[in-house]
Write a structure and sequence with these properties.
With 251 residues, this protein is α+β, with helices and mostly antiparallel strands. It is 29% helix and 35% strand.
Length: 251
C-alpha cells in the first residue's frame, strides 16, 4: 500500500486540530512556515493541505490577511424543476425560503453587447449580433452562493418593457414570465452541468479558493417554436451547494 501523500497527512492534522477546538471558527491559522516547522514539512505541502481544506469549506482564505477556520455553513439546496420555473417569483428565493435563509441578489445589465462565438452558437445567432447581458451574484444570508451570466438576443426583447431583466415593470420576474409578457412561450430548457475548477474571478466573488470545485451549468431556454431565447452560465461552489433535479412524470 502506498504511503499517504504528505499534504493529505497535514490536511488530516489541521482538520483534527479544528475538531479538537485547538482552533475555533473565525480563528486565524499560524503561518505556513510555522505549521510546516511543527509538522516537519515544507510550506508548499502546507499550502496544498490548506487549499484542499478551503475547497472543502473547512478553511477560508482572505486575500492579504491569511487563512482562517471557516464558519460552519449549511449547504444550500438548489432545486432545478419545471414546476419552479413556471411558478411566479424567483426559484432561488423559493429555495432560500425553504431553508429559512434570507435571499437577495445583485445584478448588472449591459444592453447591446456583441455575442461571443460560443454564446452566438448557443442562441442560434450570428457572432457579434447584439445581446442583452446580465450578470448576477446570488446571496444567502448575505453570503454569495451562486453566480450567473445571462444572454438574451436583443432582437427578441429590444424595444419592449422586458428588455432589462432587472428593470421596468417586470423586473426580477424570471425569463419564463418576462418572455410571456411579449408573447414568447418558453416550452423547455436544456441544462448541461459539469464540474470544473473556479476561475480566479469566480473564486474571488464566491469567497472560495481558486482551486475549489464548482458546478458549471450551461442553461438555454427555448420557445415553443424551437428558438433559443436565453442562455446562461450558472456557477455554484460544490462545497456549499447541492443541486437537485426534480423530473416530472406524466401518466
Amino acid at each position: 500500500m502506498s504511503e499517504q501523500p504528505p499534504y493529505l497527512r497535514i490536511a488530516d492534522e489541521l482538520r483534527q486540530r479544528i475538531a479538537e477546538h485547538v482552533w475555533e471558527p473565525g480563528d486565524r491559522l499560524p503561518s505556513r512556515a510555522q505549521i510546516g516547522q511543527e509538522c516537519g514539512v515544507g510550506e508548499n505541502v502546507v499550502r496544498r493541505a490548506q487549499e484542499l481544506l478551503i475547497s472543502q469549506g473547512v478553511l477560508e482564505g482572505r486575500a492579504g490577511s491569511g487563512t482562517y477556520v471557516a464558519e460552519p455553513r449549511q449547504r444550500v439546496r438548489v432545486v432545478r424543476s419545471s414546476a419552479r420555473e413556471q411558478s411566479s417569483g424567483s426559484p432561488f428565493r423559493q429555495d432560500m425560503r425553504a431553508l429559512r435563509r434570507q435571499s437577495d441578489w445583485e445584478s448588472r445589465t449591459d444592453a447591446k453587447v456583441p455575442a461571443p462565438a460560443e454564446i452566438a452558437t448557443r442562441l442560434g445567432i450570428a457572432e457579434g449580433e447584439l445581446c442583452v447581458r446580465t450578470t448576477y451574484e446570488f446571496l444567502a444570508d448575505g453570503k454569495p452562493v451562486q453566480l450567473s451570466t445571462s444572454w438574451e438576443p436583443y432582437a427578441v426583447t429590444g424595444g419592449t418593457l422586458v428588455v432589462l431583466p432587472e428593470g421596468g415593470p417586470h423586473a426580477g420576474a424570471g425569463v419564463v414570465n418576462r418572455m410571456a409578457e411579449i408573447g414568447v412561450t418558453i416550452s423547455h430548457a436544456v441544462e448541461q452541468p459539469e464540474p470544473r475548477h473556479a476561475t480566479a474571478e469566480e473564486a474571488s466573488l464566491l469567497g472560495i479558493q481558486k482551486a475549489a470545485l464548482v458546478t458549471h451549468i450551461r442553461r438555454t431556454y427555448y420557445s415553443d417554436e424551437g428558438r433559443p431565447v436565453e442562455t446562461a452560465d450558472i456557477v455554484v461552489p460544490a462545497a456549499h451547494c447541492e443541486i437537485v433535479y426534480e423530473i416530472p412524470i406524466s401518466r
